[in-house]
């Protein structure tokens, strides 16, 4: 627990420092985290790190995230489509020339990993470009959800939420996470006196949506880890696992915020 707290404090402080700075430093920082998260996924699949497919995927993830700072809208859409087309061509070429060391299942997993990781982290950078307080609100709401779910689950948890995926998570913990997220919304209201979104009602609703769907994202990553029979996605954060373990909720919630028009 002591190691977990120390790691969480240092990593959280570093993340918040880059979040406050924003711009190119934040984009590079998040691109680095995205690439490591992608490599954690491909490592679960036991795909060789220096295979052409894995390296092409890592390059596509980095280019996707970094493009948020330098282009957006139709320019990004055009780049993203071209990146995916190029990636597919490289993966198909690897199938031909790898002498059966690289196969279609691995190629499909790499393509999934690039989309699963690249686009949400692009949206994270885009969210910061649209405003510090909005990005801060979403991030702190997710942290509050994790903490609220953990402590409520330990104190009151008795009904399993998804035992086939994550046996330790409980319905009581999930409710505690939502309550903690709403508490953050009211704290923001008390501090800033002006809603980050168009109204306080929308801000409260966003807090609930972020909390609930963030928990779904956490369960989705747990399902992936259970399939590959691993406890953590990586070891880069002692006591916490890998970067994917820390960003699994945001990876799910950010595309939903985009679909709802909260991120443009």
Automatic annotation (TrEMBL):
Keyword Lipid metabolism: yes
Cellular location(s): Cell membrane
Transmembrane spans: 12-41, 53-73, 79-97, 109-125, 131-152, 173-192, 204-224
Bilayer topology: Multi-pass membrane protein
Superkingdom classification of source: Bacteria
Keywords assigned: Cell membrane, Lipid biosynthesis, Lipid metabolism, Membrane, Nucleotidyltransferase, Phospholipid biosynthesis, Phospholipid metabolism, Transferase, Transmembrane, Transmembrane helix
The name this protein goes by in its record: Phosphatidate cytidylyltransferase
Organism name: Sporolactobacillus shoreae
């Amino acid at each position: 627990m002591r190691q977990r707290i120390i790691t969480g404090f240092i990593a959280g402080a570093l993340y918040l420092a880059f979040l406050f700075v924003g711009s190119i430093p934040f984009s590079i920082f998040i691109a680095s985290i995205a690439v490591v998260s992608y490599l954690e996924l491909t490592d679960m699949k036991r795909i060789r790190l220096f295979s052409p497919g894995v390296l092409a995927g890592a390059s596509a993830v980095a280019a996707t995230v970094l493009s948020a700072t330098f282009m957006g809208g139709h320019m990004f859409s055009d780049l993203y489509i071209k990146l995916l087309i190029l990636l597919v061509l490289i993966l198909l070429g690897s199938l031909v020339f790898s002498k059966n060391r690289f196969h279609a299942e691995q190629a499909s997993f790499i393509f999934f990993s690039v989309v699963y990781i690249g686009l949400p982290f692009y949206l994270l950078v885009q969210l910061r470009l649209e405003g510090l307080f909005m990005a801060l609100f979403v991030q702190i709401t997710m942290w509050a959800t994790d903490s609220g779910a953990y402590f409520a689950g330990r104190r009151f948890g008795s009904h399993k939420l998804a035992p086939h995926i994550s046996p330790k998570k409980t319905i009581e913990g999930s409710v505690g996470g939502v309550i903690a997220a709403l508490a953050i919304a009211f704290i923001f209201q008390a501090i800033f006196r002006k809603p980050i979104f168009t109204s306080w009602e929308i801000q409260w609703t966003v807090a609930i949506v972020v909390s609930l769907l963030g928990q779904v994202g956490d369960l989705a990553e747990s399902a992936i880890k259970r399939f590959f029979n691993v406890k953590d996605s990586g070891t880069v954060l002692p006591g916490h696992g890998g970067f994917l373990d820390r960003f699994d909720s945001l990876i799910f919630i950010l595309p939903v915020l985009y679909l709802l028009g909260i991120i443009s």
